[in-house]
UniProtKB/TrEMBL annotation:
Protein name: LCCL domain-containing protein
Keyword Endoplasmic reticulum: no
Domain LCCL: 186-238
Keywords on record: Membrane, Transmembrane, Transmembrane helix
SMART domains for this protein: LCCL (SM00603)
Spans through the membrane: 93-111, 265-298, 318-337, 357-375, 395-415, 422-447
Origin species: Bimuria novae-zelandiae CBS 107.79
Keyword Transmembrane helix: yes
Highest taxon of the lineage: Eukaryota
InterPro entries, per the entry: CRISP-LCCL_domain, LCCL, LCCL_sf
Amino acid sequence: MARGAENTYPADGDDGGTDVDEEAQLLQREELEVVDNIAARADFKRSPVSSFLDRIRGPRPPRIQTIQPSFPSAQKLLATWLNQHVPGRHQQAILLVVVFKLWLIMFIIILSGQRPIKDENGVTAINLDCVDTLWRSKNGCGIDGIDCRPFNNVSFPFRCPAKCASVKVLNPRAVGHQDVNYRPLVIGDETYRGDSFICGSAIHAGVFSDVSGGCGRVTLLGSHDNFSSVEKHGIESIPFDSYFPLAFTVTPNPSLHCPSDPRQVLLFLDIFFTGLLSIFSTSPSIFFPIFIIVFAHVSFASDPPSASYRNTTVLPDHISMFAKRLLPALFCAVVIYRTTVKRTLRGLTAHAEKTALWLGGFFFGALSNYTFDWIPIQRLTAHDLEQQPGAKVALAIILFVLAAIIAGQVYYYWLEARLLRYLALYGLFTTGILVCLVIPGVSLRIHHYVIALLLLPGTSLQTRPSLVYQGLLLGLFVNGIARWDFDSVLQTTADLREDGKFDSVLPELLEPSISRTA
């Protein structure tokens, strides 16, 4: 302190020090009163909207959610071992390429069983989809069925994929006096009507099992009448007591060396390799190779798209569809990664929980044709909800569960002080949906991939429930695109009806008026 300043203080024994302390306390008290008055005026001037926004903005500071792993040393063991023995990022990238190539080689070897196969006469077996028939719908047979000839004295070997017993018609089909819907189209017993599903009929006849699929021989019999109804091998056939110009039988064909359907082997292979990638990797970018593997699994194994009618092999069609759909799906995957997946997986050390919850949910959603097959909702349209028994109840339960999940996610976003921006985002989504609903001439169609894209932003949290929800939605996105492509969200009435009936009013036939002339 300067000497001049020291001289301003009173000497020992004076009361000046007490006066200075009292003046300092008084000034400090006045400053606090001024600050309190300013804050009070600010609170007084703040609008109710601002106060409401402050409440929903979340706590200060934000409470960022992170997963505290159970048994952390055990969950990090494999990743730590990899970082010790392959320390550099360049070396780890090379190892990733090697593992990915190994998966690809094994995947191709297993798929090679779908090459063309021939019977003892050198005739190539025809690959059928689960819905292939001899008598095609939509007037595909022409007048008097001339385009579906011959009707008899013809046989050919065929091959069917697995899991055809659960494939159903989604629009009413007239079979005599009844409308058949939401069940396998198998009409008859041992001798089947010409428009029956060939693969479903083969399962009903016991030619092969639904689990593995298989091969057989179709023999065309021509006209037949009185098709009976019997429940066998999990399929209840449909009766028809009149005649039909085309009937057929299905029998085993022992001369065909028919390999079993590869989907179960491929499922084990893909779960094994994606599990390795998930549990050994600490980087969230491991999402991309896992995404490609799951996409390939749906495209070629679990739920492949329809191939050309009656091929000798479905591989060219499946390869073509896979190449067509993967590239745009990867562009979407980049956006999903940067906005959602990266925030959830970054810094996550619970690798075992990530593998079980996130990757498990991924496969659960990608296999939705099996995991959600028990839900009585095939298409989310008003017409289908009216037709399907139990669809409205199932939809109500789904909406209730979804509302509970959304409430939980909203709470976590509020804790992280990110709720406002996500409310604004979903406000834009809702506006877009409302605009689509009022466009004349078309109907809004909410597909698998649309549901996933709408809900995925709400899972960018590092919580255990978010791992499950995010994996499930990623699987639904992959299943929707790999199986059905980027189908339009705005479709005309004809597109939605497909081969269904018009539901038009039957015409009234008036009694003819006959007049006699003299």
